[in-house]
Structures are given as structure tokens and as C-alpha cells.
Amino acid sequence: MKTKKIVILGAGYGGLMTATRLQKAIGVNEAEIVLVNKNDYHYETTWLHEASAGTLHHDRVRYDIRSVIDSHKVGFIQDSVVEVKTSEKLVILENGEISYDYLVIALGGESETFGIQGLKEYAFSISNVNSARQIRGHIEYQFATYQTEVEKKDERLTIVVGGAGFTGIEFLGELANRIPELCKEYDVDFQKVRLICVEAAPTALPGFDPELVSYAVSHLEKKGVEFKIGTAIKECTPDGIIVAKGENETEEIKAGTVVWAAGVRGNAVIEKSGIEAMRGRVKVQPDLRAPGHDDIFVIGDSSLVINEEINRPYPPTAQIAMQQGEIVAKNLVSLIRNNPHLETFKPDIKGTVCSLGEDDAIGVVYGKKLVGTKASIMKKVIDNRALLMIGGPSLVLKKGKFKLL
Amino acid sequence: MKTKKIVILGAGYGGLMTATRLQKAIGVNEAEIVLVNKNDYHYETTWLHEASAGTLHHDRVRYDIRSVIDSHKVGFIQDSVVEVKTSEKLVILENGEISYDYLVIALGGESETFGIQGLKEYAFSISNVNSARQIRGHIEYQFATYQTEVEKKDERLTIVVGGAGFTGIEFLGELANRIPELCKEYDVDFQKVRLICVEAAPTALPGFDPELVSYAVSHLEKKGVEFKIGTAIKECTPDGIIVAKGENETEEIKAGTVVWAAGVRGNAVIEKSGIEAMRGRVKVQPDLRAPGHDDIFVIGDSSLVINEEINRPYPPTAQIAMQQGEIVAKNLVSLIRNNPHLETFKPDIKGTVCSLGEDDAIGVVYGKKLVGTKASIMKKVIDNRALLMIGGPSLVLKKGKFKLL
């Protein structure tokens, strides 16, 4: 009997967890495992807002994939996925193709712009190491340019963050800490800088405990963030954004930098491959396989899992992606060992902490509400936990966050 | 008898040397001295190429003016000079005006674009702390953006330096050292980067010893610089430059960054004030006063002093500006003490060293040719000497260059 070939697409939280759990669980000759990823590094998506604001160097948010995979058991291909030809059990890559017996699609999400004009062209999004580095560079360049111009354009110093969800709020927290440093670095008057958060929903951090939300908003406001809640962005232009104002009116907010942090959809490869999905997200079966595709697992931001208590999808998080990776690894072991019993995925939400910068946060951990330093320490513990689960203690020592207080 | 009022415009090498020598030479009540400068800091013009390349932080190239002037003897006004009304003995500032009995114009030079189209709009110039910081930021932003684009634009990684004079060559030396660091920082392939120097004259560093010039060019070429000598820039565009090729043809060189480092003219205030000048530079009398204005001294980049040995003007340098400042301070003391004898300025060229980066240089010092490490050490000694002459040993300790080897 031919050795089965397992192909894992993507080395984010879900894909890398699948690969590292799988390499522990099976013997060298039990299956052929191939991991495909665009870069030769994994990055911490949940830390990208720090690299984008410039409060953490981007090399601190990534590590070499080869440092956590066992090359005797897992082959690595650095390439981009173009499409999956499901009927031929074939993955088309930019520079080749690869066949599979079992496929894990863990390609991550993409920014969802909800059809708002100009966002793709003129707004940045906190998507990966490259874009984070670019946002940091762009903001610095605006500050650097301000003082060179005879006629000062104050809008250069305005940063609009679209979305007061998790990413938006965490990015604002970092920016609020970074701005005073930038002002000093570039001889800019702090009073000239504006940090504006625009959110269409009637509240910041929808779904979060209202008491915690109010803590977050007031603490960020004290650091200079202006919130425009219940305000929809109508259009993004080279000069800033246009927002709705009342019934029929609009207002222009000029801004040198617009960062869109308000939506995640599934990966375009899903739809291109003809796998049934809603906004690119596959409503997976309890064992995390795609409906109608018993050889394909979908996990992470491209998967959709319903929280039956409230009959709404769980928000895509690193926590869920990693837990899915663990289950998929187990289920793949079962499949290659011809064990018909596959495990069912059930998220175990230990807690959610939203950072408000280096020194402040809000969160719910094991049902307990936390704010300030305590929450901030918990956030770093959670960040380190992801490293521990994928790369073990040595990775925590190399890339962990230890400035706890 | 009313106390005489001496106004010094500009706190560059010449102006600050005048002020610091003057405050040592005269008593508190002998004259009123006022120093006017746009910024509250002095910057080392001759180090700006390092800040522009990103090899030295811009805070290392500047220091607080108040740290070197004696506030009991010299008043400081932070403002920009608009015009001098010579007949009224009045200086018009952006936010006020100030009368004088004796005036020292030490406002520095401006970039000379020789009427080349587009240079003002699309090229950067290494003029001051603000522009240096912007050049550094711009280049970093090009590297940061490169990796975010699906279709790679290699021209983002092309830097054109217009001019192979002193500033152009020193900037190229720093860039050649900085580029490998930038490639690492932004995951960019070194082979994709181009550093191009375009010079209209038939040689790099015209006026320098040919043997030293050839050392400089070959050492920079080894580090990846491409020289286009005897090539005139015809136009600068948003996409790069257009150069002459043969008799009637032109060639486009696409480049994300164009830095113009090829010419200095006098300050626009000179011409605006109706003082006789050539390209904004005043051919001063032997005692450094402007012809026809016995109450106005002009020093530094806005002054023109002929080297009678070769019947050509001395190139404007920090060395000459500082020596002029010393003479002007002496002559001002004579004038306020009603001593009719004014000293004559005679440049004492101790040496000229052109840096090729942190670790390499060429130069002639006391008539001796130097290359490599020896020249590089001499360069730093010269840099420290400027600090010593203006601010004494404490300034050298604070801002000096000590990484001699």
C-alpha cells in the first residue's frame, strides 16, 4: 500500500499547529507530510499591530518555520498557493504543483472591505509582516516630511483607524504610546497629531463586556484617541476618508494615513477552488472537514464554526485556529491508520484579552474580568503560550515577551 | 554713547563661530549681540549625508544653540529671516523685525538646480536635519513597500545621486554601507538594489588629486555603486531621471529615490535684500564686508572668496566658514572699539578629507595624500575639531565621533 500524502497549506497558527502535532504523533514512514507556505517564516498575526505601530520590531513577531518542524517527517515548500483542483487532488502553486491524499487548508483570512470604494487602493491593512513594516514606514515618513514643507499640512499627522474591533483597538493602543516618541523623533508638536477611530457599529469592541469597553475607550481617549462610533466610512480617497453624517450628508476627514482594521473574510483560494463558502469561509463539519470533501480539512480564519449558544459564528482567533490544528492532527492520524472515528471540534475559550498598549489591557479570563496591569500581564502570558504550544520552551525563550511589568 | 547692536543671522559654522568668539572677546556691556536662527539647534552640515543615509541618527548631528552661547552676552531669537532692509539697518523676520548697527549674514547656502526641470519638485536635497530625516525615511519606505506589492517594481530600489562632488561621494559611501542593512531589515535581495551616481563633469570629485579620485571611485564601485560620469541630467520626473546620451538622444533611468547633491548657491535673502551677488554669493572685501555695505559682513556659503593661486573661488566649506567667523569676530571687536584697523581674511586650508563611509576615506592633509583607515580617522578628527572650536571639550565629549577604528 502506498504511503499517504498529507499536504498542509499555510504555516499560520492552525497550519503550524497541525504540522508540529502531526510530526510528534506519527512515525517517519507512516505518512508523507508536506507543509507549503509563502514565506520561510511564521509570523504572529496577533502581534502585527505592534510591528505596524513601530512598538515591536517585525523580526520579533516572526520565526523560521524550519526551527519548529522536524525535517525528517515534514517536508517544506516555500511557494504561494494559486488553486486547489479538488477533483484531481492537486494543489496548483505559483511555481509548481503538488498532489495530496489529505489536504489541510489553513491559508488564513483576507481583509474584508465590504465594497467600500478606495479602501483597497488607499488604505493600509495590518495583514502580514510586509504590510506591518510598510505601515510603520509610512507613518514615520509622514512625520519626517511634515517638517520639510514650508506650508505645513497638519493632515499628514492624522491617522485614521477604520474599525474599533479587536485589531483596531489594539493598534490604537500601540499608536497612542508610539506617537509621543514620534513627536520627539521628528520635532513635531503633539497637539498637531490626531488619532481617529471610525466604527460603523453602535459600540467599540462589539461582543465585549460593556464595562470593559467603556474602560478601553476612556483610557484610549485620555491618551488622545478620538472615537467616531456609529459612523460609517463611505469612501477612502488619496486625501483621507469620507464618512456618513446624519441621513444624507457626508463629511471629509483628511488624513495622511488610513489603516483599515475592520473585517476578515476567508482566503480567495477557497472560492477559486470551488469549495462551498460564505465570504470565503467554509462552514466546516464537526470533524473540521469541508462539506462534500472528505479529504479536505479547513481551519483557521477560512473556517466558520457556529457558537450554538448564541447561534452566531465564533470570531476567527489564533486560539481557535490552534485548537483546530490539534484536532486535525488527531483526525489525520486516525485517517492514515484507517481508524474511522474522527474527533469533533469544540472550542474551549479560555479567555480573551484586548491590549491597550504595552502597559494596559482589558479582558475576560476564565470568566473573570480584568483591566490594567493584570490584564496586560495575562495578554503576554497568552502571547507566550502560542509560542510554547507550537515551538516548545526554546521558542518561548527566543521570541517570548518577558517585560511583564 | 549708545551701545552698538550686533546682529548675527544664522547659527551654522560661520555664525556660531562669530557668536562664540565674540562672547569671549568682549565685556557684557560693550555691545548688544543678538543671534537669529530658524531652529533652536545648530547642525553639522558636513555630517548630514550620514543622517540622510541612516548611518548616524539625526540627533547626533545637532546640538542646542543655547548650550554654546553665553546668555549674558548673546541674545537668541528663533525665527526665519525674510529680508534685510539695508538702508534702514533693519532685518525683517517672519514674526518681527530687528534693527542693527553691525550685521553678520551667515545664512548658509541653498541647493542650486541649474534650471534642471523637475529637480525642485521630485528630487531630495541634503540640506538640513529635516530633509536628511526625510531622505532616510523615504528610502526606508521604498524598501518597506517593495515587498508588499504583488508586481515587484525594482526601480523602487534604485537610488540616483545627482553629482559626484564632495556631498554626493560622501553620501554614496554611507549608502553603500547602509544598503546591506536595509536589505536584511526588509527582506530585499541585494542584487535588486541599484546605486547610481550621475555626474555631468568629466570626472568625479573635480579638483581632487586624480589618484585619490580613482581610489574613491573603484572602492565605491566594489561596494556596488554605478558611476555615470560625463552624463548630464536633463530632467527629473516622478519616475526617475532623464539623462543625455550622445548628441541628441536621451535615456530614462527609473528610480524611486533621486537625491540632488550637485550644487550650492548663496542664500535667497541676499538677492532679496539687494546686496550685490553672483548666484546669491557675495564677493566680499578682504575684511569680509559686503561691497558698499560697511556695516554688513557676509560669511560662509553665501560669501565668495577667490583663490588667487588658481583665480577661482574657494569651494564653500565648513573650514572656511569657521575661519571667517573668527576674523569677523575680531573685526567686530575693532569696530565697536573704534579701532580702524580690520583684519584681512586669508583661508588656511589645512586639508580636505572626503569620507567613503564609516571605514574608508581619501584626503590631503597638510599636503600629504591619505587613503583608507588613516584618512577615515583624520576625517573624524576634523569632525571633532569643529565641535571643539565652537563648543569646547564638553561638546566634543557629548557629540564627538570616537569610533575611530
Topology, element by element:
2 copies of one chain form a homodimer.
Chain A: E1 4-9, H1 13-25, E2 31-37, E3 41-43, H2 48-53, E4 62-64, E5 74-78, E6 81-85, E7 90-93, E8 96-99, E9 102-105, E10 110-111, H3 119-122, E11 124-125, H4 129-146, E12 158-162, H5 166-185, E13 194-199, H6 210-222, E14 225-229, E15 233-237, E16 240-245, E17 249-254, E18 257-260, E19 264-265, H7 268-272, E20 282-283, E21 289-290, E22 293-298, E23 303-304, E24 306-307, E25 312-313, H8 318-336, E26 351-355, E27 361-365, E28 368-371, H9 372-399
Parallel strand pairs in A: 1-2, 1-9, 2-5, 9-22, 11-18, 12-13, 12-18, 13-14, 20-23
Antiparallel strand pairs in A: 3-4, 6-7, 7-8, 10-19, 15-16, 16-17, 21-22, 24-25, 26-27, 27-28
Helix pairs in contact in A: 1-8, 1-9
Oligomer: homodimer
Shape descriptor of chain A reads: globular
The largest sheet of chain A is: 6 strands, mixed
Distinct helical segment count of chain A? 9
Can you give the mean pLDDT of chain A? 95
Which fold name corresponds to the CATH topology of the largest domain in chain A? Answer: FAD/NAD(P)-binding domain
Strand fraction band of chain A?
25-35%
Q: What is the total domain count of chain A?
A: 2
Helix/strand-derived category of chain A reads alpha/beta
